[in-house]
Amino acid sequence: MDANSTNATICTIWQNDTLEFTSILEINNHLARILIPAAVYLCIILVSGVIGNVMVLLVYGFRIKKTTYAILILILAGLDLMTCLFGVPYHILSVVYPLMFVWTGFCKCVSFFLHFATISSAFIVNVIAYDRYRKICKPFQRQLSLTHIKTASFVIITVSVILASPVLALFSSTPEATGISNITGTVCFIRQDLAGTHFHQVYNGIIFLIYIMLLIFMISMYLPVGRHILRLRALKHKTSRAAAETAGMARHSNTPREIHDKPIKMDFEQKIQDEHFHSSEDLKNGEVDSYCVTIVEKSIQNQTIEFSKDIHNQDFFCSISKAAQS
């Protein structure tokens, strides 16, 4: 829980009924009752975050091929899962004991891990943005490989540990004045002897500058990706509309089909006459050979199928010619 929010809540209580509280335990319990909705909200985040990240780890770990994107998602889900398992319980504990957080070691370790996970996630998200930019905007150039991703992950973890290390010295269980009958509480926040010092200000400035640089880099990656996707959608829509117009023109125009149908029909009739002529030669004294009749019928059926195919081909080439003219 932030010390500023704690002070604001305490000031409200002090202005309303300062004489009601005689010990830090009473003040702590009163604040905890006020913050019950926050505790419930954090519990919901804890349950949903654990379930969601576990599902992501199972799917991307066992069901999906190990690509660069899958590895990055696994790392990001792992960081989020550890944040849910350690960071959210820490905040719940801060809500339940807003003025009685006396666990100094736990305060330092969790504060360090939360800073480490936040910095690492920011770097991983930017690597994902760069990977998408390469795949979408430059698909025919060299892409990130699994070796690149493993190297980048190692560098990100190392840099994040270095950047989060000062938190171990900055954060601790710090005394917090309540302003009520000289009662003092304890919160997990920046040590009073280091708050506002050059060390504290320089560290905050470095972290802020890194986040601004990462934000600018991520925006510079996703803007070309967005423009490229919009351009592809416009091209797809234009192509679909042109294909629909071509199909409509082919359905409503019969002139080319009639022109090309005539020689095909003539060839078909000539073939049928030839079949009948050859079959008539096989007639002897009014007796028809059943075997020859079967052969003639099959030949006529084959010619009919070929004629239908010729008609379909003529329609297809007619549509292509109209599309080329338009």
From TrEMBL:
Keyword Signal among UniProt keywords: no
Ranges where the G-protein coupled receptors family 1 profile domain occurs: 52-225
One GO CC term, this protein: membrane
Keyword set, alphabetical order: G-protein coupled receptor, Membrane, Receptor, Transducer, Transmembrane, Transmembrane helix
InterPro entries, sorted: GPCR_Rhodpsn, GPCR_Rhodpsn_7TM
Cellular compartment(s): Membrane
GO molecular function, one term: G protein-coupled receptor activity
Keyword Protein biosynthesis part of the UniProt annotation: no
Membrane topology: Multi-pass membrane protein
PROSITE patterns, per the entry: G_PROTEIN_RECEP_F1_1, G_PROTEIN_RECEP_F1_2
Membrane-spanning parts: 38-62, 69-92, 112-130, 151-171, 202-223
Top-rank taxon: Eukaryota
Gene3D superfamilies linked: Rhodopsin 7-helix transmembrane proteins
Family: Belongs to the G-protein coupled receptor 1 family.
Protein name per UniProt: G-protein coupled receptors family 1 profile domain-containing protein
Organism: Mytilus edulis
